[in-house]
Specification:
This protein is α/β, with parallel strands linked by helices and 81 residues long. The protein has two helices and four strands.
């Protein structure tokens, strides 16, 4: 979960579709990734991944704490539906 560029992206809806593609593009650009989805997110070995629902406050808070523990300053967030 390190990044040579210091750039971190938080992406919800990252298991498939637009969210997954966004994560792939940003990973190729050198971003560290924090990924959340209701379904398990696979294929991003260096990413912080979490299965959770963005409509559940406990899931979101747990994910935010984990991301903050890894990277105190997140610069980019994306929500895919």
């Amino acid at each position: 979960m390190t990044t040579d560029t210091g750039r971190v992206a938080v992406i919800t809806g990252a298991a498939q579709g637009i969210g997954r593609r966004t994560a792939q593009v940003l990973a190729a650009e050198g971003y560290a990734l924090a990924l959340l989805d209701r379904e398990p997110v696979a294929g991003f070995e260096d990413a912080l991944t979490s299965a959770g629902d963005v409509t559940d406050d406990e899931d979101v808070q747990a994910f935010a704490r984990a991301a903050d523990a890894s990277w105190p300053s997140v610069r980019l967030g994306a929500r895919a539906q």
